[in-house]
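## retry 2 of 3
previous attempt timed out at serialization; input unchanged, resubmitting
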Amino acid sequence: MLSGLAVAGLAALTAAQWYNIGAEVSDSDLTAPEAYEAAASGEIILIDIRRPDEWARTGVGQNALPIDMRAPTFIDSLLAVTNGRRDVPVALICARGVRSARLARRLSDAGFTSILDVPEGMMGSGAGPGWLDRGLPVAMVE
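## retry succeeded, writing output
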């Protein structure tokens, strides 16, 4: 049974913190502002891997390309964006960093050599407040 202090502490967590409370950030991960700046300068290709309904609700981070990770053509679409190269720096962003971390591992296993993760995602997680709460610009997807 949780003590009153523990319950109060849990109640103080935001939904984003609770959802991914144990988020780990590695040296190869990017914060949302770092991803925004790197995509804007052309240093990386930023891919929003969420679902179309999620893009419609929040928009897609400015300079990010929306490619639904569930699409059977995801890898082909990604290779089209990188001109067939698997060594181009690609950063992945999802809602809270869970899907992007999993997909980053799968893409690395598939031979992509420069996959980065944005673990705070669009909505925030234990890794950070997220693209939206940071006030970074978004573009609506039609």
